[in-house]
Amino acid sequence: MKQIRLTKILAASFACAASLGIALAQQTTTTTTTDPVTGTTTTQQTTTSSAGNIVTYTPDSDYFMFRTTSGATPVRYYYTKDTTVVDPAGRVVSFSAIRPDMPATVYYSTVGDRVVVRKVVLAQPAQPAAVIKREETTTTTTTRP
User: Fold this and answer.
1) What is this structure's pTM?
2) CATH number, residue 81
3) Other beta carbons within 10 Å of 57
4) Would you say residue 35 lies in a domain?
5) How many domains does the structure of the chain reveal?
6) What percent of the chain is modeled with pLDDT above 70?
7) Is 1 inside any structural domain?
8) Tens digit of each residue's pLDDT (9 = 90 or more) over 58-98
9) How many whole angstroms separate alpha carbon 30 and alpha carbon 32?
């Protein structure tokens, strides 16, 4: 009985891992069509996602560097005022939560030659600044006459 249950759990886990791998390996799909009557060209883009690490982020710029694997060259991912950053629980956080070498998943579209980010999902909660706790102990000795 327990062996069958374990087999079912392992099979479900494998199926979830396989579907996650397929979802993360999606490529951006751009479809361009031209109406033969009017000559109007329509371009449709599909948002896709990539998982990796944020390499650098400078608050005064309009982009951050993102790397999908440790051996890959970092790529500029541009963000706009409409880009949202969320923590692992799905709560919206500010861009100040982004740190170098932080794992994340980015949802983006390619617009011209730029990769424009729509949403950044941080893979770990943002760590607050380090707090150094200092404890001090004072011992007083009194002698009785």
Assistant:
1) 0.55
2) 2.40.50.320
3) 20
4) no
5) 1
6) 64
7) no
8) 888 899 999 988 888 999 999 999 999 998 888 999 888 88
9) 7
Alpha-carbon distances, residue 31 vs 41, 57, 63, 99, 126 (angstroms): 10, 32, 26, 35, 37
Q: Residue 127 corresponds to which amino acid? A: Q
13 pLDDT exceeds 70? no
Structure tokens at 43: 């371009």
Which residue type does 77 have? Y
Q: Over the chain, what HEC string results?
A: CHHHHHHHHHHHHHHHHHHHHHHHCCCCCEEEEECCCCCCEEEEECCEEEEEEEEEECCCCCEEEEECCCCCCCEEEEEEEEEEEECCCCCEECHHHCCCCEEEEEEEEEECCEEEEEEEEECCCCCCCCCCCCCCCCCCCCCCC
